Amino acid sequence: MRIIRAVAGLAILLLAGCGGDQNNATPDTTARVSRLGAQRLAAPAPAADYGPLVQQLYLAYFGRAADSGALPNFEAQLAALGAPTDIQQLSSAYRDNAGVRALIDSFGESDESRRLYSGDTETFVRAIYQNVLGRAPLSGGLAYWIDAIDHQGLSRANASLSIMGAALVNASAQGLLDAALINKRVAASASFTSALNTTVLAQSYSGKAAADQVRAMLAAVSGGTDLTAFQAVIDSTLLSLARSSTDRPDDASGSQVHVVYAVPAGTADRRLDLSDQLVNSTGSFNNWLATQTGGRRLRFDTAGGRLDVTFVSLPRSDADYEAQGVRKRDTIEADLVAAGLVSAGKIYTVYYEGSNPRTCADAPRPPYLAGQVMVMYLHGLANVAGVTPCDQNHFAASPSAAAGYLDFAMLHEIVHTLGGASDGVPNQVAGGHVNTSPTDLMYAGPLPWQPSVLDANKSNYYNPAGLPAGLFNLAQSSFLMPPP
């Protein structure tokens, strides 16, 4: 059917030069600890910016950028504790403020940090140097930090940031190089975190594999990196984390709806699969469906607890597909099948980044037109006199928001793809529609479509008590899950 629209202690115990690799001198650890011990915590400035400090903590302990959820969380905790924004001042805060000490220790004692930094003391220190400074320690620095940990009271939980903090104030030639490297990686980390500006992107940055990938990205940053040019690397990393061109492993078995974002050749990729729009839309109309079915929802394909959306770069241009006329949807489905992207037991909601002068969406209609793919033409009905273009409508603002035209349109096509409304139902018109009321999800007729009811008289395509044998009944569909 075609839908036509008419109407995001730290004990830096040993700073100021003590992280340098002066091979000809033995740092006076005791004296440096004494001088730092005399410092007192200064009150942070109003609206202090803890963002760089949190990124430094993540780099020091995890070698990667902060995730978008953790960043404001740790900023708020540091602010509530009255912590300074400068890592060199955190030693006093670590000693005098139990909350600061517990927060910083939570970094060093975390499983992720322990995985990065393990082994005997020398192995531990070498790993920190490689992770934080991108190099091996010189002999003087190595001996100094081994002694600090083994004999001078520097805990392993604090060592990463102590080494980073020391490097940032070391005025030697090597120290200046180290500081430049750290500052560039902090800036690159901040850019990466700020780019996690949708729920989809933010959720994609989770788990060990994602952490390893971002760690490798930052390892490529040097003191001389052009951060403007490096944005392309950040962008590529985000795409790699969040975008999939295959159907990811399913969380559950059974009949399910899989979401596809398809871009025809030569068409701009607006990255809807990385935005929240498709998650919002499917969540919104599925929640509406639950209000009509006593809590039953369509089973959507998820992976890792998140909606699984496949990105497809189609082999033909929009003009090539349009040349197929009314077989445009059929050709898109054929190309998806040829690419191995259509599996038994699933149907596919395809959000197509292209046009169609005839409709906003269409679908197969078993048994007359077999198929598993319904297509929404995101730029459909453009330049058609007297008709509102499809892209002047909007998806629901969130999964909990009320469904709108585009959301209902895709649910309408899902019902068609599953088989509704069958020939022989009391109110069927126009090939799979009903004429009961313009508020019916499957209505077709002269009045403006204003969907708000699933099968207005419960006689055409949805009735939990049953419909006559041989008629499609959504209530009996394997694609609907039991109520929670």
Short description:
The chain has 484 residues and is an alpha/beta fold. The chain has helices at 29-37, 51-62, 70-80, 90-96, 98-108, 111-116, 121-133, 139-151, 156-169, 173-194, 199-204, 208-219, 227-242, 277-293, 318-322, 328-338, 405-418; strands at residues 2-3, 256-265, 302-303, 306-307, 309-317, 346-352, 361-362, 373-377, 428-429, 433-434.
Rounded radius of gyration (Å): 30 Å
Low-confidence stretches: 4-46
Rounded average pLDDT: 89
CATH architectural category of the largest domain: 3-Layer(aba) Sandwich
Q: From N to C, what is the helix and strand string?
A: EHHHHHHHHHHHHHEHEEEHHEEEHEE
Organism: Rugamonas fusca
Protein name: DUF4214 domain-containing protein
Pfam family, one: DUF4214
InterPro entries: DUF4214 (IPR025282), PBS_linker_sf (IPR038255)
Could you characterize the architecture of this molecule?
It is a single chain. The protein is α/β, with parallel strands linked by helices. The protein folds into 2 domains: 29-242, no CATH class; 256-476, Collagenase (Catalytic Domain). Helices cover 41% and strands 9% of the residues. It has helices at 29-37, 51-62, 70-80, 90-96, 98-108, 111-116, 121-133, 139-151, 156-169, 173-194, 199-204, 208-219, 227-242, 277-293, 318-322, 328-338, 405-418; strands at 2-3, 256-265, 302-303, 306-307, 309-317, 346-352, 361-362, 373-377, 428-429, 433-434. Strands 1-7-8-6-2-5 form a 6-stranded mixed β-sheet, with helices on both faces. Strands 3-4 form a two-stranded antiparallel ribbon. The chain is elongated.
